[in-house]
């Protein structure tokens, strides 16, 4: 499907050195939607490591699939995303490396949309070394993209405090809490968000705390959102209000 779009790009970049970028990427407002019904999150699923990824760390930490203390419940693949630098491109998709050094596989489909900055683009805009934001359905470290934004515009989002702590095998995770945690919040409660709502919450969280992979967004009873972040030592839970502003984060 994508070979005709990418054949020239792949040939031109095959000999290029892989560039892994760091730092934070800005976020542009999402336009993708979904008609999928919401699903209630269960807290019966045990915490653990995702297949083929680093396991959960010591108490207080969580790697891929690790949710820190308490439940790590999820209901299968869910809306999420990640940001980073394109490290390789194929006819079926590409890989990116986040600013925290985590590698993420991106699958593309005929329905995937593309932007370069704020302008509409095609799959050929995705080339090695470019910063990207990807939104879609996350399953561990693989994202099936609904939207890919190359060179995301800078964000003016403010942080409630703290910085992303990269994942390190065997390292104890931080127990830091910053900003406001929604009253009555408990891990495993709420309803999975989908479509534009999940996209906006994901974008907001990644603008403030880049480096991880958002594997689900949960709408809480008070209208705020918990954005679940994997692949980092901290934060694993980023809280976003109804105006899609980050208000707090914890383990």
Q: Describe the global form.
A: globular
| Structural class estimated from helices and strands | mainly beta
Helix and strand element order: HEEEEEEEEEEHEEEEE
Biggest sheet strand order reads 1-2-3-7-6
The helical percent reads: under 10%
Total number of beta strands = 15
Share in β-strands:
25-35%
- Let me know the average pLDDT: 78
* Helix count, DSSP H or I runs of 4 or more residues: 2
Low-confidence runs of at least 5 consecutive residues: 1-5, 7-73
The largest β sheet comes out as:
5 strands, mixed, barrel
Gap between N and C termini: 41 Å
**Number of structural units classed as domains:** 1
Radius of gyration: 17 Å
Explain what the structure shows.
The chain is mainly beta and 251 residues long. The protein is 10% helix and 31% strand. It has one domain (1-7, 23-28, 39-251). It is built from 2 helices and 15 strands. The strands form 2 sheets. The protein has a 5-stranded mixed beta barrel.
Tag the structure with descriptive keywords.
two-stranded antiparallel ribbon, 10% helix, five-stranded mixed beta barrel, disordered N terminus, mainly beta, 251 residues, single chain
Topology (elements, then pairings):
Layout: H1 3-13, E1 78-89, E2 93-97, E3 103-107, E4 113-116, E5 119-121, E6 131-139, E7 142-150, E8 165-166, E9 178-179, E10 191-192, H2 195-208, E11 213-219, E12 225-230, E13 232-234, E14 237-240, E15 246-250
Parallel strand pairs: 3-7, 4-7
Antiparallel strand pairs: 1-2, 1-6, 1-11, 2-3, 4-5, 6-7, 8-13, 9-15, 10-11, 11-12, 12-14, 14-15
Compact description:
The chain has 251 residues and is mainly β. It has helices at 3-13, 195-208, and strands at 78-89, 93-97, 103-107, 113-116, 119-121, 131-139, 142-150, 165-166, 178-179, 191-192, 213-219, 225-230, 232-234, 237-240, 246-250.
């Amino acid at each position: 499907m994508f070979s005709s779009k990418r054949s020239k790009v792949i040939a031109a970049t095959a000999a290029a050195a892989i560039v892994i970028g760091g730092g934070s990427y800005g976020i542009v407002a999402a336009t993708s939607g979904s008609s999928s019904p919401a699903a209630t999150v269960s807290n019966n699923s045990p915490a653990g490591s995702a297949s083929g990824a680093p396991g959960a760390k010591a108490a207080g930490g969580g790697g891929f699939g690790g949710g820190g203390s308490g439940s790590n419940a999820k209901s299968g693949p869910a809306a999420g995303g990640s940001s980073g630098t394109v490290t390789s491109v194929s006819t079926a998709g590409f890989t990116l490396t986040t600013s925290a050094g985590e590698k993420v596989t991106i699958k593309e489909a005929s329905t995937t949309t593309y932007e370069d900055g704020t302008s509409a683009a095609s799959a050929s805009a995705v080339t090695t070394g470019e910063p990207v934001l990807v939104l879609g359905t996350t399953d561990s470290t693989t994202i099936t993209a609904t939207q890919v934004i190359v060179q995301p515009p800078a964000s003016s989002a403010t942080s409630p405090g703290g910085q992303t702590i990269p994942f390190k095998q065997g390292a104890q995770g931080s127990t830091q809490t910053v900003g406001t945690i929604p009253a009555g919040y408990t891990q495993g409660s709420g309803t999975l968000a989908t479509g534009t709502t999940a996209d906006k919450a994901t974008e907001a969280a990644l603008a403030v705390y880049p480096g991880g992979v958002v594997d689900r967004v949960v709408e809480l009873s008070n209208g705020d959102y918990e954005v679940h972040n994997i692949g980092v030592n901290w934060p694993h839970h980023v809280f976003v209000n109804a105006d899609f502003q980050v208000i707090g984060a914890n383990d």
